[in-house]
Amino acid sequence: MLRRLALTAVVSLAALATAVPASTATASGPVSAGPVPAAVPTSGPFAASKPAPGPLPMPLPLPGFLDDGTGDAPGEVDETRTRLTVSVENTGVPGADGTFELECGPTGGTHPKGQAACERLAEAGATRSGRQELFRETPEGTMCTMIHGGDAFARIVGTWEGRAVDTTATRRDGCEIARWNSLVPVLPDVR
User: Fold this and answer.
1) Cis link prior to 106 (omega < 30° from 0)?
2) 149-153 LR contacts (CB < 8 Å, sep 24+)
3) Which of 8, 150, 165, 177 is at a distance of 20 to 30 A from 91, taking alpha carbons?
4) DSSP, residue by residue, 50-94
C-alpha cells in the first residue's frame, strides 16, 4: 500500500511539473483573452526568480524504504530472487528423500514439484503474515501436542524473495507437523 501511495505521489508530481509551465503563461499568447492565473507567485517574497522547470525525468527511482532496501523498483525485480536447496531425509516416501534445487521466476532446478512449490511460495509471499511465518521455526516454550509424525527431517537453505533462508523442519510434535504441512509442496507430503 505504501508503494502504491508513493508511486501515486511521484506520478502526481510529474503531472504537476508538466502542467506548471503552461499555467504560468500570461495573456501574451494569441488565443488568450486575459491573464491566466499563475500557479507560482509572480511578485512578493515567494516569487520565482526563474521560470518553472520542465517536466520531471521519468522513471524516478523509489526511495529505499519503499523497495525493501534492495534497490529494485517494481518492474526491475531480479528474475530469480528465490533459490533454495531443499534436503529431505527419512520420509518413508519413495523418491521424496534427497537434495533438490528450487528456483522460482522462472521455475527451474531439480525439485520434483518445482512449479507447485513456487506457487506455494508466491502464495505465502503475497501476505505479510506469510512472509513472516513461512520459514520461522517454532519458538521455544510453545505448547504443542505430543503427536509424533515420523522421523522425517528437512533443511532449507538459500534465498526466498531476496531474503536469506536457513531453517530445518521435522515432524516431532504437533507444531512441527503443522509447520511441515504448511511448507508442502516445497517439502514432500508425508501424511
Assistant:
1) yes
2) 149/173, 149/176, 149/177, 149/180, 149/190, 150/90, 150/91, 150/92, 150/190, 151/90, 152/88, 152/89, 152/90, 152/91, 152/92, 152/180, 152/188, 152/190, 153/88, 153/89, 153/90
3) 165
4) SPPP-PPPSSPPPPGGGTTTSSPPTT---TT-EEEEEEEE---ST
Instruction: Name the CA dihedral angle for 142, 99, 116, 80, rounded to a multiple of 10 degrees.
Output: 100
Q: Note the pLDDT tens digit of each residue in 21-43.
A: 544 444 444 554 555 555 656 66
The strand pairing partners of 160, in sequence order, are 163
For the chain, strand residue ranges (E) read 82-89, 98-104, 108-109, 153-160, 163-170
pLDDT at residue 77 greater than cutoff 80: no
Q: Is the peptide bond before 185 cis (omega within 30 degrees of 0)?
A: yes
CA distance 147 to 92: 17
DSSP letter assigned to residue 116: H
